[in-house]
Predict the structure.
Amino acid sequence: MKVTLCTDIIHINGVRFLTAISRHICFGTGFHIKDATLDTLELSLNQVKDLYSKRGFEIEALHMDGQFEPIQAKAAGMGMTLNVVSRDKHVPEIERYNRTVKEHVRSAKSTLPFKRLPVRFLIELVAACIFWLNVLPAHGGISTTMSPRTIITGLEIDYNKHCRMQPGEFV
């Protein structure tokens, strides 16, 4: 099955993440990246591609902002078509997803008793927020009963295991 991804880079408290969301499946991913060099972006895109290919999905196209234009040749080498939007335009699906991730991180962070978070904790907090966004069936997704996580990874959520503790809880 062919998949189209919308991808962007976001910054949360100065920490950089490469985020991606698939059209129709609505499965979101987020990877911490140290820099925005071509090699780093290629490595992250390979990680996303490998995640999808494990279940038989093939990334056909990437929709990105103009800042990703230099990786067009690398994307073509991986078998993906890179569609770069016009100058001063953005890909709406990933922009909305980024806002949602940032809102979830802000709300989770506001419940914590800490004034500052270590970078590693912030990375794990972002991962936890993305995890929970993928757990429930997506509104407007391809399935009303299966979550994007189940579709892409084949794993069901175990509420006894996954709901026991949340990031920042005192253990």
Remarks:
- The radius of gyration is 16 Å.
